[in-house]
Write a structure and sequence with these properties.
The chain is mostly beta strands. The chain has one domain: EutN/Ccml (OB fold (Dihydrolipoamide Acetyltransferase, E2P)), CATH 2.40.50.220. It has no helices and five strands. The radius of gyration is 14 Å and the shape is elongated.
């Protein structure tokens, strides 16, 4: 799983018919302490995430197991909205 923050959305009027009705969001991976990482991903949103929310993203074959993504050309899916992250510090 990837911890990420929603950074924007994608509108594609022409796409594979199996993606019709799917909400596509731009997400940016973050470290557990909330710092932005370098890459961005486009992910199908199956949980109703909103702008700037912290989310859990799965990729590859796990993305195609998300609700509503079976047999669809999906490589990343938002499967959770994160309420909080607690990272234990090394001693």
């Amino acid at each position: 799983m990837i911890l990420a923050r929603v950074a924007g959305n994608v509108v594609a009027t022409r796409k594979d018919p199996r993606l019709e009705g799917q909400k596509l969001l731009i997400v940016r991976p973050v470290s557990p302490d909330g710092k932005d990482e370098a890459n961005y991903l486009i992910a199908v949103d199956v949980v109703g995430a909103g702008s700037k929310e912290l989310v859990l993203v799965v990729s590859g074959s796990s993305a195609r197991m998300a609700e509503g993504c079976k047999d669809k050309p999906v490589d990343a899916a938002i499967v959770g909205i994160v309420d909080s992250v607690h990272l234990e510090k090394k001693k």
